[in-house]
């Protein structure tokens, strides 16, 4: 019993001298939460663009029902997920659903290349531009979140903060894995219908007169 008390006193003394890091843990935890909110916000922004995009494409390419259905179903699946960023399985499920939605959007934009009238529609072009900007924002928000989680995890695993973290129940947070990143490393390509010009063929030169 005396040894236990001595150990506790020693731990308290070390924490008092070195600083327990409790306030810093609070700050870093709140930063992670704010970073996650921004990730969710940008993914929601993308999901909100999809109904108008699908309706616009459908107006010019009703026969592409399979692709349109895939996008609609993928968006619905994303909306049904109740993600908990502190749970690794929940985060993985969320990111997988977002990856499937991104793939479906890519296929939809590829299909649009077959319809010149659709590509020239101003509403469609505006939606493409908004989608491109949203994909960039998703990449930035996700990258910042990864850094915030890494910073938080490194901090609470360091001494003496690790003692404080265990005392108050702060555990390491899951992060986007390499597999998650591979799914979204290639965001939907936004094209405005400009095709590269075909290389010009050099006309044959007449043979020199004999």
TrEMBL record:
Subcellular localization: Membrane
Membrane keyword on record: yes
Its membrane topology: Single-pass membrane protein
Pfam families in the cross-refs: LemA
Keyword Magnesium on entry: no
Region (Disordered): 183-210
Bias (Pro residues) ranges: 201-210
Keywords: Membrane, Transmembrane, Transmembrane helix
InterPro entries recorded: LemA-like_dom_sf (IPR023353), MamQ_LemA (IPR007156)
An annotated GO cellular component: membrane
Family designation: Belongs to the LemA family.
UniProt protein name: LemA family protein
């Amino acid at each position: 019993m005396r040894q236990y008390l001595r150990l506790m006193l020693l731990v308290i003394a070390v924490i008092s001298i070195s600083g327990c890091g409790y306030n810093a843990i609070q700050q870093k935890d709140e930063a992670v939460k704010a970073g996650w909110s921004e990730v969710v916000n940008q993914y929601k922004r993308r999901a909100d663009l999809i109904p108008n995009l699908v309706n616009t494409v459908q107006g010019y390419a009703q026969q592409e029902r399979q692709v349109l259905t895939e996008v609609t179903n993928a968006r619905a699946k994303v909306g049904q997920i109740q993600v908990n960023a502190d749970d690794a399985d929940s985060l993985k499920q969320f990111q997988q659903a977002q990856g499937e939605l991104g793939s479906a959007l890519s296929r939809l934009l590829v299909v649009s290349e077959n319809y010149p009238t659709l590509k020239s529609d101003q509403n469609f072009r505006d939606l493409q531009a908004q989608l491109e900007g949203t994909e960039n924002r998703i990449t930035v928000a996700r990258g910042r979140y990864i850094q915030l989680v890494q910073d938080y995890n490194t901090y609470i695993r360091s001494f003496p903060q690790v003692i404080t973290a265990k005392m108050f129940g702060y555990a390491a947070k899951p992060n986007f894995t390499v597999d998650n990143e591979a799914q979204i490393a290639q965001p939907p390509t936004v094209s405005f219908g400009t095709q590269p010009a075909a290389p010009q063929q050099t006309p044959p030169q007449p043979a020199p007169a004999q």
